[in-house]
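Hey, I was hoping to borrow your eyes for a little while. No rush at all, and the record is pasted right below:
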Amino acid sequence: MLPAVQAAAALPAAFDLRDIDGHSFIGGVRDQGNCGSCYAFGAVAAAESTWNRAHGLYDEQAIDLSEAFMVWSLGPLYEGMDGCNGGNILDPMNAVVEYGVPVEKVFPYPLQDDQWTVIEPAIGQHWDAPRHLLLDWYPIPPNDIETVKRVLHSIGAIRASVLVEDDFQRYSSGIFSNDYTAIDYIIPYYSSSNHAVSLVGWNDAPGPEGMGSWILRNSWNDYWGEDGYMRISYMSAGVNLKNSYLIAVPWSGESVELENDGRLTARPWSAGGTLNAYGVDLWGGAASSVTNRGTILAEADGGEALTTARGVYLWGGPEGWVTNSGEIAAVAASATNQAIAHGITLQGGLVDNAGRISAEAGSEAKQALAFGVWAANGGNPLTVRNSGTITASTNDGVLNSAYGIWGDSRAGITVSNSGIIEAFGQEWAVGALLSNGPVLLDNSGTVAASADPDTGVAVGILTTNPGTIVNSGTVRGQTFSINAWDDTQLVLRTGSDLIGSVLLEGRADQVRLAGSGREDERFAGVETLIMAGWDWTLAGDSTFGSIRVVGGRLGIDGVVHGNTTVHAGGTLAGSGTVVGEVVSSGRVAPGRSIGHLTIDGDFRQNANGLLAIEIGRDSADLLTVTGTASLDGTLRVLPDGYAAGGYYTFLDAGALDGSFTLAQGAAVLDVDLVPLGSDGLALEVSRNRYADLSTPGNHGIAANLDMVRSTAADDFADVLDRLDLAMTSDDMNASLAQMTPRIHGLATVLALDDGQAGLDSVRRRMERFAPTEDRARDNGRSTTVWMEAPGRHGRYDADGNSFGARSHSFGMLLGLERTTVHGLTVGMTGGITKSRYQSDSGGDEGENASLQGYLYGFWRDPQTMDGWRWGGAIGTGVIDLEGDRHLSFAGRQSHSDHDAHLLAGTLLGGYDWRFGNWILGPTLGLNWVALDEEGFAESGAGSADLIMRSRESDSLQGVVGGRIAHPFSWQELVLEPEVRLQWVHEFSRQTDDLESRLAGGGDFFVTPGRDLAANGLIMGAALRTRFSETMFTHLGYACTLRDQGGETDHALSLQLGWRF
C-alpha cells in the first residue's frame, strides 16, 4: 500500500552496493590495525561509494580513497580527529567536503607485515596529490530505516556508528542482534557509540525479532565476521541512531510542487519488520515543495513492527520547503516495538507554519520518539518560521522522547517563533533542538518542554553550536529553560519569561538585557552579563564572570555572583546581594523604593559616580558593604513618598575610605551628613515648605499643597511624590507651574487678541477704497458684498509668571453694507476664527474656535475728496476654548473644553488730505473687547486635574497713527498701495486672576492672570485694487511689535468685494 501522495520509487527487498547488476561500487575491506582510526574508514567508505555511484565507476574502475590521508593529513586540522586516539562523527564528514581525499595508492594505510601494528607516518603528507572533493553531507533521523534504504539505493554507503561490546567483537556469521536499539541521550546524535562503520546494503528478510538486517562493512580486516562484513538487525548496537551520508553531485530530478486544500490520509505499508505511513512522500528534486492549506493525516499502529508515521516527508535539495496553514498530524503506535512520529520530515531549506503540526508516538514496551518538525539541510541554511502551533508528545513505553522542532544545518539555523512550540515526553523533552551549525533564534511566542518531574529531563531551547537567542516570549523547561553548549549571546527583551534555569556552557557566553522585565530563574556558566535596557530585575541565585551595567536599571533581588562595573548611565539597584567587587561610575540605588542592597566584597564609587538614597516617613535605604567602601562622587538623597525628616543610617561598611565630593538632597529636603565612626554614615534630614521654595506666580498652589501634603493619599499622593523629586528650587517651580492654570491664562489673552483682530478686520472695511469713487454710481448710493480671509502668526514672550508660546490664527468673514447719498454706510459682518497655540516648552497646547458678528457704520464727506471720516462698530460672539495641559514631571496630561462669550466695540475717526495723487490719512481710535468665561473642570490627569472658576476679562486699546497712499489708474483698473504706522496702548493690561483647585484635594488657590501687552507698534503695507466699478480687493500685511511679555505678530489678510 502506498501513502496518499508518493513520488519515491519502490525499493527492492534486498540491496547490496557490492552487487548491483553484478558490479561492485565499493572496494575491499581493510584493517585499521592497532589504531583508533575507525572514524576515517567509516567516512571514506561513504565517500568512495558515493563518488563511484555518482560517476558510474565500479569494479576495477571504482576509486579507492586514502584513510591515511584523513588520519595524518586532515586530522591535525580538526579537533574531532586525533590520529590513532579516535575521532567524532562530524569532523571526518566535514573534512571530506571541505578538503577532499586522494586515492589510496598515493597515501597507503601503513601496516607492518603482521597486519596489526600501525607505523604512524609524519603529519601532513601528500597535500600535492589530487583530491576527490565531495559536495555535501547530511544527517538522517534516528532509527529512520526507510531513509537509510533510499540513500543506499540512490546515492551510496551510509556512515554509521555502533556500540561495540564483547558480543560484537566475537561476531563470526549470521544476523547480529542485541538490545541496544534506543537513543540514550537527550541529543540523539550523542547516544552511546564507540566505533564507526559503514552500511552498504540491506535485506528485509525477517531476522531476530522479525526485523530485516543491514550489511555492515567493518575495518577489522576480512578475517573478521563474514569476510569483514556483518549482517546486523536494523536497530541493534545502535547502528541506526546517528547515521549520515555524502553527496558528490547536486540534487537533481524533477522538483515537485504539491498543494493541498483538501484532506490527505496516509495508507500504511510494511517492509522488513517496519510499518510506515506517510501522508505526503516526496523524494528528490532540488526545490520540491509542499503547500498545505487543508488536512494531512498519517496514522500507523504497528503491533509488533517498528512503526513510523510522517505527516509530510520531503527529502531533496537545499531549496525544498514546506508551508502549512492547515493541519498536519502524525500518530504512531506499537505494542512491542518502537514507535516514531514526525509531523514534518524535511531535507530542505524552509519550514513555514501558520497552522497546526502535531506528532504523537506511543509504545507499550519500547522507546517512542516524536518530532513535531525534523529538518536538516547539510551545508546550506535552514529556516523555520512558526506563527501557529507545533506539538510533539509521547506516551507509554520506556526512554520516550519528544522534540518540538529539531533543526540541523552546518551553514546556520534561523528560527522565528511567534506561535507555540511544545514537547511532552517522559524521559527527554526539548522544545527546540538546534544542532551542528550557527544559531539565530528569535522567540516572541512560547517554546516549552515537559518531562517526567522525577526522572525526566526537559529543556526549552537546546543548542550545540555558537549563536544568538533573542527572547521576548516564554521559554519553559523544568530542567533548563535554555541550555547552550557553545558560545551564545542570549538577549532578553521586554516580555521575556524564562521558566527554568539557564545554563550556557561556552567559553564566551553573554546575557544581554534589553527593554524591561524580571527573571526569577538561575543563570549559570555565563561569562558576561550586560544590562543595556531600561529596567530589569534578577531574583535568582546566579553566577556571572562579570557584570556590566551599561544603561538602565539593574535590580538585584536575589544573590548574584560576579564582579560588577556600573557605567555612566547605568543603575545598580535592588534588595538582594552582589557577591564580588562593585566599581561604579554610574548610579547605585538600593531597593526600588526603600530597600537594602548588600555588596559582599569591596565597593568603589568613582568621581562621576552617584549613590542615591531614598528617605521615607520613618525608614531609609541601606547599603551594606562587607569589604571596604571607597567613596568619591555624589551622594543624592531623595524622598520616597512623603518624607517628613529624621535620622537614618544609610551606609554600613567593613571599612570606609575617602568621602563624597558632593552631598545633595531634593529641594524639599535639608540634609546633613553624619559620620558613624570608621565604618558607617548617617543622614539627618528636615523638610522644607513648598511656599518657601516657590516664585510669586506659584505661591498660591505651593501654599495650598503645604496644607494637604502630609495627608495626601492614593493618586494625589503619587502626584506629590513625583513633585518632591525635584532637585532644585528651579526644578520645583517648573513642576509647580505645570500644576497651575497658566495655559488657561494664555487662552484668555489669545481670545481677547482675536476679538481685537476681528475689530481690525471691520476697521479695514471702514477705511475702504477711494471714497470719491463711491459717487460714480447711483448718485453715491451702492450696496457692497465683501469677504475677508485673515491669518495671523504670533509669538508671546515668557515673563515671570507665564511661559512663552506661539499661536496661529485663521478665519473667514462675510459682510454686507449699504452706502447712502449722504456718505453714510451701514453694514453687518460675521465670521469664524480658529486659533491654535503651543507653549515653547512643556507641551501645553490648545485651540480657540470663535463665531463673531458685528454691526458697523461709518461716514465720510461725500462732497470732497478731503475731509473727515468717522466710524463705529459693535459685536458679539461665542468662543469654544480647548486646552491640553502637560505635567511632564508626573507623566500626565489634562484636557479642558469650555465656552466664553465676547462683546466688542470700536470707535474711530480720521481726516484725509490729498496732495496731488498722494493721500495722507491720520487716524484715532478706541477698541474694547470683554470676555466672560464659564467655570469648568479638566479631565485626564486624575488628581492633578484643575477645577476652574468663571472669570471676566477685558481689553481697552487706544490707537493713533496714519497711512500714506498713492493711487494709480489705468482705464478702469486702479491700484492704491499704502503704508501704515500705528501706535497701540492697552489701558486694561491685567486680566483677572485665575481661581482653581486640584481635583485631588485642597482649597481654591489664585494664580496671576497673564497680562496683556502695554504698548504696540504696528507697521503695515497694503495694496488696494479696483478692477471695475463693481469689483475690488485689498491685500494687506502687518507686523506688530509689543512690549512687556506681549507678542510679535505677523498678519496677512485678503479682502474681496463686489459693489452693485
User: Anything to note?
Assistant: Residues 232 and 942 are 80 Å apart (CA to CA).
